[in-house]
Amino acid sequence: MKNNEEIVLNYKRHLPHYFHADAVYFVTFRLYGSLPSDVIHRLKAENKTLLKATGLQFPEKSMRHLSNIRNKYFIQFDRHLDSLITGPDWLNNHEIAGIVETGIQFYHLKNYKLIAYTLMPNHVHMIVRMLKSGDGLSPYYLSNTIGRLKSFTAQKANQILKRTGPFWQQENYDHVVRNDGELSRIIEYILNNPVKAGLSETWEQYPYSYCKF
């Protein structure tokens, strides 16, 4: 995997987001209201405490340490999504899941090269390699692409559900995949997510997973 020297750091809501030119990203986004507010507040408070304890006022000074903290935050976050029995599970609807899969595939070889994805009942995992835009890469290219994907699928899903209001939670989780070993581990993680959640016996049997690595 190509190492990338240029890093652009920007902050979106509560989580720091990174942008690498021609990088592979692990992206997760979830349904609106899929986690109770008290769970979110507790996880963010714990994450903030860890950051404060390390003295990382400027995270770019210790990228590996920050990455470890973010990974711990994500694992707790994802476990809650898998275990909660309350909240929306609209991605269990085959028609809505199909719309999301179509949206994900639409940007393949346009904005990114799609490596893998898994649709869980209340959230989505994706692994993509970002491609250069026509006017060059920008720090917002990834978030803009995911934003368009979420906007399109939200509109279509709400029409099917005959509802209005937010469909996706605004904030996304994204992580730069730094080498092939990490990429293999993340692919294994997202493909086995439905198995660990008891939704399928094997990842190959799960209808809403894709991998081309």
Structural features:
single chain, 213 residues, alpha+beta, Alpha-Beta Plaits, five-stranded antiparallel sheet, two-stranded antiparallel ribbon, 5 helices, 42% helix, 20% strand
Helix coverage percent of residues?
40-55%
Label the overall shape.
Answer: globular
CATH superfamily: Transposase IS200-like
Question: Structural class, judged by helices and strands?
Answer: alpha+beta
CATH architecture field: 2-Layer Sandwich
**N/C terminus separation:** 12 Å
Strand order of the largest sheet: 6-3-5-4-7
The stretches of 5 or more residues where confidence is low (pLDDT under 50) are 1-18
CATH topology: Alpha-Beta Plaits
Number of helices: 5
The number of strands is 7
- What is the total domain count? 1
CATH class: Alpha Beta
Mean pLDDT: 79
Could you tell me the radius of gyration in angstroms?
A: 17 Å
Oligomer: single chain
DSSP strand (E) fraction?
Answer: 15-25%
Give the helices and strands, then pairings.
Elements lengths: L6 E6 L2 E6 L3 E7 L6 H18 L8 H21 L10 H13 L5 E8 L3 E8 L10 H21 L11 E5 L2 H17 L12 E3 L2
Antiparallel strand pairs: 1-2, 3-5, 3-6, 4-5, 4-7
Helix pairs in contact: 1-2, 3-4
